[in-house]
Amino acid sequence: MASVVLLLATVLASPPLPRDVLESPFGIVNPWPEVGAKGMGAVWCRCGGGATSLGDWPSIQPLAGVFRWEAADAEMRVYEEEGLVPCPILSYTPEWASRAPGSRDASARPPLSLRDYFRFCREIAARYAGRVWFWEIWNEPNIGFFEGTAADYADLLKAGALGVLAGNPKAYVVFGGMAGVDRLFLDLCYQHGVADYFDVMAAHPYQWGTTFNDGWFFDKLEMLRATMSAWADGPKPIWLNEVGWSTGDPGITEEIQARLLVQCFVSALSREDLGVERVFWYCVKDWGGPGHGVYADDGHKKPAWYAYQTMTRSLRGLKYLGRIQVGEPARAYVFGGAGDRAVVVVWSSDLEEHEISLPLGAEAVSAWDAMGNGLECGQYAAGRLTMVARPQPTYVEVPKSALRDVEQVKPLAVSLPDPARRPRGWLSLYPQPGCEMPWLWRGHTVSLSGRLVNVGDKAARGQIVTVLATDDGRELAKAQTPVAAEPLTDTRFAVNVSCPREAPEEATLTLRAELSSLRLPALKLHVLIGDGPTVNFLANSHLERSLYLQPDAESGCAESVRFGSRWVYRIPVPYACRVVVRMDVGAHQAGPWSVAWSQDGKEWRPLMSGKSDRQWHSAKVDDLKPGRLYLKCEGQDQQVGQVRVTFITATP
């Protein structure tokens, strides 16, 4: 289930993690010290992030220069006593370090100084060196847990990764587990050069409802790996470090929660071809009522606790071998060990029972249900085991030598990068304020601000080479900007990009640092090109929520998507002009949707409409006055992914 390469990558650590730990895929989230996870069979635990002390920046460093380790040390001792390997989340921002101290979301704001975060990460990595091997940089940075842009998160990740490296050169960095699988946010992060600064990709592919939709689940995982591969970042392992269902949600009984837990874990571990290496259940204990925990509020163990324990006992020491096709809607996943023992995990993906037939060269040894209770194995005759696939998973132990017709997959050879090869600094280029992507103006020169951070021990001098090119590689413009950065400094610079009049609507802006003593990865930023300034943002992003979304939205949100029946965007109009509005918009199951515009928020005129799934649509509005442009989205399950508004006029 775990990559052998992972074991090899940690051989030089001192002391190394045991083989059974490295090969275990089973994790849990937030095992509070007073509850723990002993007896469940979990090996890895995700902690910190405001829920527990180990990794929680505000509780460890309540004041600048003041570190209080007592609670984190005590928590670390509990994990060691229970045999858990902690993977702490390094967040959130203390009041004293926040960009917005005193605000209601101060802890979700990026730190005012990245030096403060660097120092915190350095100190905690050094304190727990040899005891903590993986550090996660923030939690769900693509939604409201991080009130910053993708560029802000890229800077935070780089500062955190280099802080961890300074504290423990043998520790690894985990990308902040995304809410869902957010391809748009992740692509922006890669554009901002994060690939060389983390070692493990993490995501939280939650789903809702009483049945496990493995088709949707696999689509999400395949999209995640495809995005990584598109940025030549394919070999890194994927951790699903939050999955779960809440017994507080409609229809989710404790028994259904237990069933979904096993189905999700087993399905995830079947995707070794995508490099899925670990799965973490969220979480150990409910609080304030029914929830995601395997313990209820009153301390009793839910069926999910026993299902987790049975799963780990059943599959410990086994690796995924493949799948037996037994006909829809049944599932049969096969796991085997070094000897002749194999376990087939069987269930029905709907809520009915279905008779299935497993091709076997010998009778089954034994069978048991998700709670560990023994079952009849079924009827064996003529090389086939006939049994019933039920919604609750069944474990069937068989001789590995008896398996027939197993569809095997080729595991992806994932590996962890060598932390010692991490760059000793980074390069950043920022979109204009209020934008998620940089924009250029045809026939004009636009200035973009950048940052060069040098955490090495030598001065770095040279130049930043900027190249604007079309998707097919045709060079449109090139510039050079001299820079110099002393050791342990943060240097700001500006690049001036001249955009020719014949430029297309989109292009790539590449920044390459040619420096005397510092190797830094290049940036390849997607830029928007138009006939004037361009406001652009992702739906459900910090920019959308803080700048452009009117507060009375009747909508929900998912990864870089807003959906619902009605909401309004308010776009500042700086001067008299006409605008081009481009929106990635549609509705669920190609239902009807519409967008109207207004300048006063009262009198509305139609702008665009249709019956379609999400796709790009464009419309113009003439003769706008300075003030605001309101865009009202209405429809049944309307969805918006991105918004771009270009102001077209003479220079004001």
Topology summary:
Layout: H1 4-9, H2 19-22, E1 26-29, E2 44-48, H3 57-60, H4 70-82, E3 85-89, H5 114-127, E4 134-136, H6 150-167, E5 172-174, E6 178-179, H7 183-191, E7 201-204, H8 214-230, E8 238-243, H9 254-269, E9 276-281, H10 303-315, E10 319-323, E11 330-336, E12 341-348, E13 354-359, E14 366-369, E15 374-375, E16 379-381, E17 384-389, E18 394-399, E19 425-429, E20 439-441, E21 445-454, E22 460-469, E23 475-485, E24 489-498, E25 506-515, E26 523-530, E27 534-538, H11 542-548, E28 554-558, E29 561-573, E30 577-587, E31 592-598, E32 605-611, E33 615-624, E34 627-648
Parallel strand pairs: 1-2, 1-9, 2-3, 4-5, 6-7, 7-8, 8-9, 20-26
Antiparallel strand pairs: 10-11, 11-12, 12-18, 13-17, 14-15, 14-18, 16-17, 19-21, 21-24, 22-23, 22-25, 25-26, 27-34, 28-29, 29-34, 30-33, 30-34, 31-32, 31-34
Structure summarized in a few sentences:
This protein has 652 residues and is of the alpha+beta class.
Helical run tally: 11
Supply Rg. Answer: 26 Å
pLDDT < 50 stretches: 1-14
In the CATH hierarchy, what is the class of the largest domain? Answer: Alpha Beta
CATH topology assignment of the largest domain = TIM Barrel
| Number of separate strands | 34
What is the CATH superfamily classification of the largest domain?
A: Glycosidases
Number of domains: 4
Mean pLDDT: 94
| % residues in beta strands | 35-45%
Report, as a whole number of angstroms, the end-to-end distance: 61 Å
Class inferred from helices and paired strands: alpha+beta
Q: Major sheet, described briefly?
A: 8 strands, antiparallel
CATH architecture assignment name of the largest domain: Alpha-Beta Barrel
Large-scale geometry? globular
**Helix fraction bin:** 10-25%
